[in-house]
Every structure is written in structure tokens, then in C-alpha cells.
Amino acid sequence: MAKSDPTTPRERYRTQVRAEVMERAWEQIATAGASALSLNAIAKHMGMSGPALYRYFANRDELITELVREAYRDLADTLHAASETGADLAGLARTLRTWALADPQRYLLLYGTPVPGYQAPEDTTAISQEIAVTLIDACAAALPPATPASPLATHLADHRTWAAGHPAPPEALALFLSLWTRLHGVLSLELAGHFTGMQFDAAVLFESELATLLG
Amino acid sequence: MAKSDPTTPRERYRTQVRAEVMERAWEQIATAGASALSLNAIAKHMGMSGPALYRYFANRDELITELVREAYRDLADTLHAASETGADLAGLARTLRTWALADPQRYLLLYGTPVPGYQAPEDTTAISQEIAVTLIDACAAALPPATPASPLATHLADHRTWAAGHPAPPEALALFLSLWTRLHGVLSLELAGHFTGMQFDAAVLFESELATLLG
Predict the structure, then answer these.
(1) B33 touches A at CB < 8 Å
(2) What is the pTM of this model?
């Protein structure tokens, strides 16, 4: 026998409307960009009045936060699942690329040009930190035993509060920052269409950057 | 005696109005993002009617193109001037960082999340290619004499139409792509505020990436 749903019909309806609003919001972001997101336009599209919709999302920023939270959550879970099934640093990097290419706007909402006037709340930072922890774990495991100290690692030895108590050596934190920025550099320019017309294979560049990172 | 201005007062007025529109547009981009750019809002701000303003810029895309062209032109000239006064690859990279930090929105308009629905015309590609040529020149000069062929360089030997006939060896083109994407990775995440609160010095990461590139 199925377990009875603990939520009331009213709560289920609310969840359903919020999910539809978010779906419409992703469509709007794809066609007009996150900074042009409009609750009124979404309401119109759904055949609701603006004020009725505002009962589900108090304002644009609350909606963006939900989208950001959903995107970070999905990426964190995707990387965590890959890691659990044995993906090493290269595997996680390729998982990130697949995730980014599957939905460019979702990737760009997290890591692209910020939506002006929007400030993500603390709890989204906590999810992005989960992503960092999964990658730092893999960086620590990928680090050759005798990695020489670099000026960056030396700097990070004293500037590691952002790693939230992760026990990885500073060399692993340095590798994480290089990994993050290099993969983002390739991915964001690819997703923004800068390689279009250049007629080289962005996957070859991605693999080359990855190979250099792994020494 | 000053040479007489070949333009008519009408033409000078036109140039002046277009310059003021572009100034307002940069302000709008800084506060609301490029995708929220509105000719009507600019017209209102300038005390003009929308239709009057449309005599100066036919539509939003023409205005964005002018902004993109101005930004690319400024970056191309800045790098070219640095190169002419002896800057090597590291010097050019630092010049790019200074240029990006001086006006984050200008950098992000060129290399950040694309404005949905906007397609830059061919002639802006020509200016971005000037930027590439200056950097490829510096990459060719910075390349150690016996750089081993990488899979990326091998790939680029057959995929180099984008380098528009530049005589640099494929290894220099590979170095250019690594340089571009790595510097962009650090700069774009820094400008997007992703390092805020991480409390490490982004300049140290930038220099570390640069040092690794230069071998």
C-alpha cells in the first residue's frame, strides 16, 4: 500500500504552481536572459494575474534564488553521484562539461555574468561549497606525492577559510582553483559561442587543458 | 591655423547625441545588464521621445553593436600600444587584466554571457581578430624553441582557418587558446564576484596561471 502523502491538496497545488513558474522562468532565461526575467510576463503566460503569482514567489529575486538553488543542487548531486561511482578528477571534469553543455543557460546562470542587482543568499553558497568539496577531494587524490610548493599554494596556506576546514594540503587547493578557472574558461567561452566559426574542436581544447592540469 | 572641420553642424550634433546615448547605455548595462538595455528608457532619461531617439539608433541591436565595437576597439588599441612599447606575453596578459578590472561590464559585454537574441555583425569579428593577432604574435615569441607537439597543436595544424593566415606554428596557436581561456577563466569569475568572500588574492592566482603558461 502506498504511503499516504503527508501534504494537503493546497500544498500540493502550491508546489505544482511553483514548479510551473520555474519551468517558464527557465524558458524566459533561454530566450531573453536572466536579467530580463519578469514575474508579470510569466503570470501572463500562465493566465494568472501578477498579484496572484506573487503569492507563489514574493519577487524576482526569490525566483532567481530558487533557480540558482535548483541548478547548484543538480550539479552538486551529479558530481557527487559520479564521484561515488568511482570518477576521478578527469571524470568529474568531463561530468561538469556534459552537465554544462546539456543546458548552457543553467550553467551561465551560476557562473556567467551576474544578474545585476541580484545577490544570492547564504544557503546557495553552502551548496556551491559542496561542489567545491567534491572537487577538492578529487584534487587531493590526483596530486602527485611530491608536488613542489608554488607561490599560489604558499599564499593559500594562509588564505584557506573558503575551503571551510577541508584538510587538503594547500597544493590541492591550488590545483582546485586552477581546475575551476581553466575549465570555466573553456566552457564559458564555448557556451557563449566564442568558438563558433573558429572551426576547431572545443572538446580537444578541454581535454588538453585537463591533461596539463593532471601533469 | 586649425584645419576646418569637414562635418556639418547637423552631423556634429548627430555624433554628439549618439555619444550621449552610448554613455547612458553603459550606465544601464552597469545597473541592469546588457539584456535589459532599453532605447525607450534611454530616450526618457535624455528627455527625448522614443521615435526621436530611433533616428540615431535604428534598434537595440545597432546600439549593442556600437558598444561592442567601441569596447573591442579600445581593447585592441590598448594591447597594440602595450605591444608597441615592448610588452611581452606576460605584459599583455597584465594589460588585459588591468583593462578588464577598470570596467567589468565592458569586459563582460564582450566575453560574458551573450545577450540573448543579439548576433554581433562580421566587422566586430574583424576587431576581435586584431586582438587575437597581437596575442598570437606574443605567443609565437614566447614559445620555447623545442616545444613538443601536443594533441591540441596537432589538431590545430589542420584547424587554423580562425587564425586568418597567421604564420605562427600550431604550438603558438595552442598556447594562445590556453592563454585566452585561462586568463578569461580567472578574470570572468573574479569580475562576476565568485571570489568575493573567498579571501584569497585573485592577482596571485592570475600570476600563477600566467607563470604556468610561460613554462
Answers:
(1) yes
(2) 0.93
